[in-house]
Amino acid sequence: MNLAYTIVTVLAALWVGFSALSVFIHAKWVVEPLAEYGVARRWWPWLGAAKAAGSLGLLAGLFVPVIGVLATIGLVLYFTGAVVTVARARSYAHLPFPLLYLAPVVGAFLLGV
After folding, report:
1. Which residues of the chain have pLDDT under 50?
2. Which of 1, 4, 27, 59 is the most buried (most CB within 10 A)?
3. Distance from CA of residue 78 to its chain's centroid?
4. How far apart are the C-alpha atoms of 44 and 31, rounded to whole Å?
């Protein structure tokens, strides 16, 4: 296993896990924009759970590669959906934020290929 892949994967998992935790604890900097984008409050726990599962899947992928690939696919779809949601809300100044979570996930995947 490549050391760079391991480091980037662990960092990506921690970064996405932090994002999930931020949703679960209703951090102001996360939930206010979600409300602004029109994301229903009842979806917030599910969004946090999806990110948490993706984070754990990235870590599990270090030992079972197919799980990492599936987690990567899920997270790419998740954060692509986040970009679309932000764009549809015309909150263009916020577009970089989901991309900041997407980039290390894709980077980890590319290092693992």
Report:
1. none
2. 59
3. 7
4. 8
